[in-house]
C-alpha cells in the first residue's frame, strides 16, 4: 500500500499544561508542560504511524520552533518532509482547568508565507503523491496563503490520480468544495456555516451531507457530531455511529484521530461502514489521553468492537 501523504501548511509545536483554575490577573501556577508536534495533518500522520500505516507528513517549517517540530516528529517515528520558510513556525498553548475539567486553547495565526513558499508546498505534494493513493490536508491556513490553497491542492492531486481527504473550515473549506474532493470531514458547526441553516435534526443533517455529494463537491462526507457521534454519507450509502462513552481526559485531538482512523481503513480497502467504526474508535481513544497526545493503537483496538454502526435510510 502506498504511503498516505498528509499536508500541513500551518503546523505548530503544541504545549499543554494544567492549572487549578483559569482566572484573570493572577499568575496561574501550572503543572508540567507536555510538548507534541501539532497541526491537523501532522496529527493525522502521528496516528496513522501508530496504527501501522506508512504516512509522510509534508509541512512548512521555519526557525527554532520548526527545528523543534522536526525533533518531536522524529522522536515519534513519523516520516516527514519539511518545506523551509523564512518565518517562525508557530506554537499553540492549551491549559486544562482542573476545577471544571475544561480545556482552554490559545491558537496563534502562524507565520506569513510568501507565494514561493506555499507554491513549494503545492509542488512537493504533487511530486510526493502516488497514483491511486490518498492524501490528507488538514488544519488552518497561515497568513499569506491564498483562500483557495486547498482547492488548488485538490486539482493538483487529481491530476496525478490522488484522492484528497480534507478537514478544514471557513472560506478555505468552501473554496475547496467548489473544486471537489474525495472526502470532506466537517463538524456540525462547519456544515451549518456552509449551508447557512441550523441543521437541528438528524434528517436535516443527512440531507445536507447528501446535497454536498449530489453537487459533486465531495464523494464522501464524514460529519462529526461531537458527543452525538458521527455519520458518513456517499451517493449509495449512509451510516451513523453513536459516540462511545469513555472517561474524558481531554477532547483535544479527537477530530484528527477520527480522520486518521477513517483514512487508515479506507487506504486498506475497507468500506465506509468499517471506516466509520474505526474512526469512531480512534476518536473515543483520543478522549482517554491528555492534551495533544492523541489516541493510542491499543486503545483503538480495544474500543473498536464496542462501536455500533447502523445504516440510515
Automatic annotation (TrEMBL):
The keyword ATP-binding applies. Keywords: ATP-binding, Kinase, Nucleotide-binding, Transferase. The keyword ATP-binding applies. It comes from the Bacteria. It holds the Pfam family PfkB. Residues 23-295 form the Carbohydrate kinase PfkB domain. Belongs to the carbohydrate kinase PfkB family. PANTHER family: 1-PHOSPHOFRUCTOKINASE-RELATED, ATP-DEPENDENT 6-PHOSPHOFRUCTOKINASE ISOZYME 2. NCBIfam families: 1-PFK. This is Phosphofructokinase. It comes from Caenimonas terrae.
